[in-house]
Amino acid sequence: MPEIPGVSAPWHGVHVATALPFHDDDELSVDYEGYAAHVRFLAEHGCDGVCPNGSLGEYQTLTDEERARVVRVAVEAAPEGFGVMPGVAAYGALESRRWAEQAREAGARAVLALPPNSYRADREAVVGHYREVARAGLPVVAYNNPHDTKVDLTPELLAELHGEGLIVAVKEFSGDVRRAYEIAERSPGLDLLVGADDVLLELGLAGAVGWIAGYPNAIPESTVELYRLATSGVGADLEKALPLYRALHPLLRWDSRTEFVQAIKASMDLAGLRGGFCRPPRSRLSGEVAARVVRETETVLGLGYR
């Protein structure tokens, strides 16, 4: 894969939080061949890497064997220069460290780590958690999602984690775009990654050097183009970026909603890709929510965005 301007570390650029296809059988078994094909498809359409075993990949519903195999399949399917940065979230720090070790052994070059998410951890517990994950020896990207974990990786706490050498970047999913500037002030060497699709332009202009993305699963070419236009590090072009962002934003907003997995998979189906079923407790969308996803996806596809 040719070197892309602005992509200089394994966590830089557009890393797709990949959806995971399942077979239509009684167990909704993982379609590993379909997943490998999707990884190759994303590489062919301009993305820089994938993040398997995120929430979009429904990691919480996978067995340990399935979860480990998903990482191996991603690494094996990735062409040269295409990154694999697995999610290593778990209830316990020891378990997260073991998943980071598994990622290292499979050939991944970085991992994405939530803070403890089984309870509202205090500062000491959060720091201890990241110390344990860092023991695996791979660069650690912290994932700040206070909505789901109830733990907020504030700029002050991120500065402590980075100052101790435990993290190299943060996937910022708080929704508060103002934080980008305080993070940069407190931790000048900590890389900012866009964590939610619907704040891509705002965080891109604030200096983000990567995007852990949802909607490139369905429309990779247009979303990668938007990232390149919006990211200040590779030459932001607002005149082109803003109308594209406005056109895609109705879809990008689904990435921050409860139904994001079903919505993105439904959009993939409409785009002729393999979205398909979700495992319980998620079920197919129905009613007005499903109609909105279909309507908004068809509008975007009808405008020629792929």
Automatic annotation (TrEMBL):
One of its GO terms (molecular function) is N-acetylneuraminate lyase activity. InterPro entries: Aldolase_TIM, DapA-like. Pyruvate binds at residue 212. Keywords: Lyase. Its EC number is 4.1.3.3, 4.2.1.41, 4.3.3.7. The keyword Zinc does not apply. The active site is at 143 (proton donor/acceptor), 171 (schiff-base intermediate with substrate). Pfam families: DHDPS. It is an enzyme of class 4 (lyase). Belongs to the DapA family. This is Dihydrodipicolinate synthase family protein. It comes from Streptomyces antimycoticus. The lineage of its organism: Bacteria, Bacillati, Actinomycetota, Actinomycetes, Kitasatosporales.
